[in-house]
Amino acid sequence: MRKNWLYRLLLSYLPVFVMVVCLFMFIGVVQLNNLSRQDAMKSSQAYARNLQNNIDMSLRTIEMMMIGTITKNTTLMSFAGMESSPEFIIDLSQLLQGMADTNALIDSIYVYRASDGVIVSNQTKLTLDQFADSAFVEENLSGQPSGWSDPRLFRTFENRDGSASVISIAKGIPLGSKGIALLVVNVSVNAIREYFASFGQSEVSYLSVTDRRGSEIYGQADQKLHANPVTLESSYSGLTYRSGLKTEFAGNLYRYVTSGWVLFGFLGLLLGIWWVVYISHKNYKPIETIMSRIQKYNQQYRNPIIREPSGDELSYIDYTLTNMIEATQDYVHRNQENQRYRRLRLLQELVEGVEPIQETEWIETLRELGVEVFSSASVSIVEIDKYSEFIRRYSHEDQRLFKYILTKVVEETVKADSYRVWQEWITNHRLAVIYFGIGEERLQAGNRIAAQSEEIREWLQNQLKLTVTVGIGMGVAEAQAISQSYDAATKALNYKSALGSNRVIGHWEIEDLSHDDLFVYLQYVRTIAQAFRVGSEGWQEQLKLLFDGLRSLLLPKEEIDGVLSYMNYYFHREMTELPPEYQELWNQEFRGRWDERLETLDELEAFYEERLSSCFYLMKSMREEKGNRVVVRRVREYIEAHFDDPDLSLSMLGEQFQMNTSSLSTLFKEEFGEKFVVYLCQVRMERAKELLRNSGLPVHEISGKVGYLHAMSFIRTFKKTVGVTPGDYRKAHQ
């Protein structure tokens, strides 16, 4: 037998083991590299900050020198005071040159006097219109000078070459003044680059310096920018310093791999691989044993459900166990189904009483139910009320759940009372329950069964909102007589229409009933139908008397159905004597039998009263339309269509419909309960309010659209009827 699963184990464990070991080695390398990089980044930050501080210190020194010269040297103040002698200009130029010599970063220095536009630098004297840097002078002279500028190009003369990139700072003379004189110092950007080139070189770090606009002042072109560089921004000079590490990961990795620790780790890896192989062989032994036993069983019994191994041992074992479990479950399921069908068949034979039951099968069934002997057996039938509505409201799964709960409620209720029962669903909506009593009188047993049935009914109604009606048969002493008890329970259920649903009906309640007076109540049918046909409202009282009589007789369902079928027939015969339009109305409102979901006399009475009343009043309306009411309806329709006519009046209506004015007024009053003028005013005001709410038409146009010739008349009538003027009404509703 091939050991495929062993090889799978090895291929599952070994790669994972090797990957884990390599992962830890990689994590070690990365961790060491990260630690070294963190230290180097801290060094880079200190390195960049030192360069920033040095540049800022140099620039601050230059600025302090400017301030000190302005405040302490009288030469600059004299220049601002219009001193212009040649000797003075020479002294001033020498002063500026001396200031430039104090710091190697200074490119040039000049002063400007606003009164005559004279500029004196450390090299020459000229006027503002000759000076190439006049724009910078005018910008700083008109406003308050604000620190060091961004790098810019500076040259002395406009038409000459030799411009230099500088950053500049300007100070007013005297300090804090505006528009008098200006001292400007230009620092060479190239000098700053040379400083960075001299002091900004590092073996592990690189440096990049940019101005406020992001333009690079200094950078090491052979180094790529690090993903997370150290960034420092000088609020004084406006320069941004970025410093990061130079990449030397390959060299660090080589030194790590060639160290002794890697060799030691490799030996540990080989030892771990050997251990995995050894443990896999040991753990495979149980699988090998199971496979051997299955193959021996298959060879010995030639079981058709067990196939030969196809390569995967565990799949083969799983396939074998699954088939064995399925075969066992199928056997158990078939046995349970056969037992359930056998018991259902036996119960049907018992309640039908057609063929004698077999003694051995009966004794075996009683033993399964836990009944050895019984003194009496009683049948009760639990019927679900309004079953058609029940199956429409609930899904098949919910219906099965309700029925299962019902059987469990019956089982638990009788168990608490030390009874044994046998229950089966003989139809979709009827549960037959056989109670077995031991050493108990039949009357006492009947009372206990009735009490238990009432308890079951109340629980179902309160907990599940499900109503049932229970019919109870008499107690019998022999199995062959159980069919008689079943017939009595069925007969009791047939009286549900008369006695009502959602209750317990015992056989003793219907045994002494007599139906001799049924013919008397059948006489009501003809009276009801004739009164209905002629339009007399007395039919309603006769219908109530009929159903009261049926309740008093306590008829079974079959006889109640017969009475109602007779009434339907008689009504149909009476309706055939009416004109065709009345017959059509009858057929629309009251066709066919009553609803099969109606189970009690109360429900049937409500059904007939509602349907017959609806049809009766529709027929009454049809009769009334054939009189003067048709004229009144037409008059109302004419008013609603022509209310905007200012000449609309009762006389005009009389001429339109060829009626006497007085008669029309009386008829109108009887129909609507108010005079014609009041009704017409109401129609016009409702239309006016609609136009005021939904349109922007002026009031005088609206008055014309609702039948008023003069707007003032309309406004007075509107205020009298509505309570406010048309304008106020529009404001309140727009």
UniProtKB/TrEMBL annotation:
Every HTH araC/xylS-type domain range: 633-732
PROSITE patterns cross-referenced by the UniProt entry: HTH_ARAC_FAMILY_2 (PS01124)
Transmembrane portions of the chain: 12-32, 253-277
Record has Transmembrane as a keyword: yes
Alphabetic keyword roster: DNA-binding, Membrane, Transcription, Transcription regulation, Transmembrane, Transmembrane helix
The keyword rRNA-binding appears for this protein: no
The protein's name in its UniProt record: Helix-turn-helix domain-containing protein
Lineage: Bacteria, Bacillati, Bacillota, Bacilli, Bacillales
